[in-house]
Amino acid sequence: MAIVFSGTKLPQSQxxxxxxxxxxxxxxxxxxxxxxxxxxxxxxxxxxxxxxxVGKAYTGAAVTATGGADEAVQRSAVNLTKIEYSDLxxxxxxxxxxxxKSMKKGAFNTxxxxxxxxxxxxxxxxxxxxMENIVWDGATAAQKLAIAALVPGGGQGxxxxxxxxxxxxMPVNLHNSLPATILxxxxxxxxxxxxxxxxxxxxxxxxxxxxxxxxxxxxxxxGISPKVLNDKVNxxxxxxxxxxxxxxxxxNNSVGAASxxxxxxxxxxxxxxxxxxxxxxxxxxxxxxxxxxxxxxxILLFDLVNDMNQIETGKMSDGADQYYYKNVxxxxxxxxxxxxxxxxxx
Amino acid sequence: xxxxxxxxxxxxxxxxxxxxKDFLANVNADKKVTVDSMLKEHKxxxxxxxxxxxxxxxxxxx
Lengths: 346, 62
Prior knowledge:
The complex is a heterodimer.
Chain A lengths: L26 H4 L4 E3 L5 E10 L17 E10 L1 E9 L23 H6 L4 H14 L4 H8 L12 H9 L8 H6 E2 L10 E2 L3 E3 L9 H10 L3 H4 L6 E6 L2 H9 L10 E2 L9 E3 L2 E6 L5 E5 L3 E5 L9 E4 L7 E13 L6 E3 L2
Parallel strand pairs in A: 1-13, 7-16, 8-11
Antiparallel strand pairs in A: 2-3, 4-15, 5-6, 8-12, 9-10, 10-11, 12-16, 13-15, 14-15
Chain B lengths: L19 H5 L10 H7 L4 H15 L2
């Protein structure tokens, strides 16, 4: 006798693991790749000093003021911007899915522990990835306008038209990324103090491939101040876009052509460190800009960097069945000793 | 003491502080001054010329 079935056929098994999205590494905060300063609530002051000394003929007489000698200190105020990551979660939308099985009995009970453990646990990594992106790419609407209003030029002391195009294409965020801050800031320690173009060293950028990446890095290297390059205590670091790792590896392994291994990867595997002419390269979610600087001059000011991992959750009030999560943090990007920062693409 | 005024040569677009506006203001068809003629006057590498022309193109399309 034939089996007769009527109704909708449904899959009767599932892959246990819920396949999660990839979340980028947030090494900037974890490994403190730049200068992270905490304990600032809403704003802070950054002081920079610069001494000029002048040798003169010995007299043995009382000391008098020396022309040209200068003991300067400047104060810049930096405001932190507070942001939140938050949303509502309505577990009722999970009814009729696998997550029902982890809900307690009773129509009131819709919280799925499986959903919490398999999906919501990635909120923190997602926030960290978002923060990493904000630090290296993006600008506030006001910063974009200010940079667009600068008068471009080819030499030092003027922004390139290419940089203005890159900033125009940046996402609009509530914070300025490090490149945006380097390009335009109101530091009192610049040659021309106050709001305006940064004092960075400009290196013109050109689109490159694996065949030409070494030439572009040579330009960056040339743009580093010899004083910075010879500073053993605070060596410079090249902060480069993530995709550069692929181009470098491909360049190092060019097929069929005579090849120079311009980029040193000391260990095998994709997590190897990378060096160019002795300068460590760190890969960040930068878009086209490259920053070459001692890490201590690139500053992230935080109330508490661990705020990134603090999430408050709970049920909404007044009988609502939704739940919420909320993460709050306050931070700002800043840069000091700008004349020693090289900005490729600036 | 009066501040010394240093005149910057704006025909070299790579001089510090020279804007493209300053540089392009020198172009004069009557005197046969063009972008190329100005670039030839200075020690500018081929690579710099390519980069600069791209910059001027971006500027033109703004």
